[in-house]
Design a protein that fits this description.
Radius of gyration: 30 Å
Largest sheet: 5 strands, parallel
CATH topology of the largest domain: Rossmann fold
Number of domains: 3
Strand content: 5-15%
Structural class: alpha/beta
Helix content: 40-55%
């Protein structure tokens, strides 16, 4: 079986998307596939930017694995757009206010580091993408218009001006409908991107004729050479047509725009790319995230508390379903990534999300403990620096060092930060009930009795054996659950909730046997006895 044939039955969603691209490329007789992502350069890259590029990258890689053909990913910056308002988070806002309406690449850089505001933000976008090692080609709208890359497509749009208008006009109100044109000429005197009706559109003469509404002055502007640009829905279609884009993702909020741009692309004589609509993020309360409300989670915040692979895991899961994006999802996503990484080493399947995150199989040794376990250890020992966690971890897994397990080093550093900023403010121990205290004393007795035998076991076996003791200690009222198939009675979740709440001061935690193996038997005994001593009613 060929390498490409081995991927033909993979069910992972990037391969499902890649099959659509493969069929399109084959039908068109092309030898490569062009993928695109787009950005508005008046703002800064954000967590959604990461998600769109990561997801598109996974489809790119799947396409190449599936077909053996190369692919290209263009990161396209709409930097010829006029600046509509002055951002709140920049210096020299008064200076920017003097240039409203001009292309952002024609406005001075308020930071004073680049030739224009657009170039500044483009540089930040590229640095952002480079930070994660994405393989992409940067494309500037201003450069493409001025260099003539869009000239032929612009003249085609001029030839079909009325047909393009007919696509958009039904979606507009009466006032806007009366003035709409897919062309936005650049004012030759002010440099402003003008939204005005066209008095004449002459593709044969390479000319747009329009009038300045403020002065009444009439102008003739070239269609080509960067003297005008297209309205954004028409601009999207123009780009697809001119470049032959095969695939582009977009958010649910752009469904109507995709539909209209696709119609315009067909009017121009092209075939719109295969699309993929991803759902938008919600906050903790299930409300749509809004930049103005500030109810979201920034990429800087996520990466402060967990490695980028965990964010990639979050982005990989069910992209067409709305997901809540808030701090509590970070540990869960991190642990899910670690579990998938462990599975990938033993079974390098492309149905595993970690396969896509790493671009294929990997020898990364991962982590011997979960991120949640590190958080709980940090909580118990009140860790204020990574070395405190390293001391416990190296006793639990002596072969693990910063050099052999660099991912663990990153996890520990971020666990300390997460504990300090997110756990400590919410940490609240409760007293044990008499029944809970009785079960905890039984666990102490079992740990003492079996300590020597347990300490002699390898780490994973020790954790499993301790977990059995934890279950045994909880097999008493009020924690018993009915036996299944004639076996031993089970243990209710309430027993484990008690351990987390009484001992750790948290509503949930890891498998307790694994925590004891990491923290140490003697330390756990002391932890339980101290917790019970705080509560006279449990004595």
């Amino acid at each position: 079986m060929s390498d490409t044939a081995a991927f033909s039955a993979v069910k992972a969603w990037p391969f499902e998307e890649a099959r659509k691209v493969a069929a399109r490329v084959q039908a068109a007789g092309k030898g490569t596939a062009l993928f695109e992502t787009g950005y508005g350069p008046s703002g800064l890259p954000h967590i959604g930017t990461f998600g769109e590029v990561a997801r598109t990258t996974w489809v790119c890689n799947a396409f190449t694995r599936l077909t053996g053909l190369p692919s290209r990913l263009i990161a396209f910056s709409d930097d010829m757009d006029g600046l509509r308002k002055v951002p709140d988070n920049v210096p020299n806002r008064e200076m920017l206010a003097q240039h409203l309406g001009k292309p952002v690449t024609a406005i001075p850089d308020p930071f004073g580091t680049h030739e224009s505001f657009g170039h500044h933000n483009n540089a930040r976008l590229r640095a952002f993408l480079d930070q994660f090692g994405f393989d992409y080609e940067f494309a500037s709208s201003s450069e493409y218009y001025k260099s003539g890359r869009f000239d032929a497509a612009l003249l085609r749009m001029a030839e079909r001006h009325e047909e393009v208008k007919a696509v958009i006009l039904p979606t507009l109100g009466p006032d806007r409908r009366a003035t709409y044109s897919p062309f936005l000429p650049i004012h030759p005197k002010t440099g402003v991107v003008m939204q005005v009706p066209m008095e004449e559109v002459n593709p044969g003469l390479d000319e747009l004729v329009w009038r300045d509404p403020a002065t009444g002055e009439r102008f003739g502007t070239r269609i080509t050479g960067g003297h005008c640009k297209a309205q954004w829905k028409a601009d999207w279609a123009l780009r697809w047509f001119a470049l032959g884009v095969d695939y582009e993702m977009s958010g649910k909020d752009l469904i109507d725009s995709v539909r209209l741009s696709s119609q315009i692309c067909r009017v121009l004589g092209g075939e719109p790319p295969i699309g993929f609509t991803y759902e938008l993020f919600l906050d903790e309360e299930g409300t749509k995230i809004s930049k103005s409300k500030g109810n979201g989670l920034s990429i800087e915040e996520w990466l402060h508390y967990a490695p980028p692979e965990s964010l990639a895991q979050f982005m990989y899961n069910q992209p067409q379903r709305a997901k809540r994006l808030y701090f509590d999802v970070i540990p869960r996503a991190t642990d899910e990534y670690l579990q998938n990484l462990d599975r990938l080493r033993s079974a390098p399947s492309p149905d595993n999300p970690a396969w896509h995150i790493h671009g294929g199989p990997t020898n990364d040794p991962g982590s011997p403990v979960s991120f949640t376990m590190l958080l709980n250890l940090a909580s118990v020992i009140n860790a204020d620096n990574p070395e405190m966690l390293w001391g416990f971890l190296q006793r639990y897994a002596p072969g693990v060092t910063k050099e052999t397990h660099p991912l663990v080093d990153r996890l520990i550093e971020r666990a300390v930060a997460y504990y300090r900023d997110r756990v400590v403010p919410e940490k609240k121990h409760r007293a044990a009930t008499p029944a809970e205290a009785e079960a905890m004393r039984a666990l102490v007795a079992a740990l003492r009795e079996n300590a020597q035998e347990l300490e002699a076991l390898p780490a994973e076996e020790r954790a499993k054996a301790i977990q059995d003791l934890v279950y045994d200690a909880g097999r008493r009222e009020p924690f018993l659950t009915p036996a299944k198939d004639g076996g031993r009675p089970g243990v209710a979740r309430a027993w484990f909730d008690a351990l987390y709440q009484v001992l750790l001061g948290q509503p949930e935690g890891p498998r307790f046997g694994g925590f004891v193996a990491l923290y140490g038997i003697a330390g756990t005994i002391g932890l339980i006895e101290s917790a019970l001593a705080r509560d006279p009613s449990a004595a």
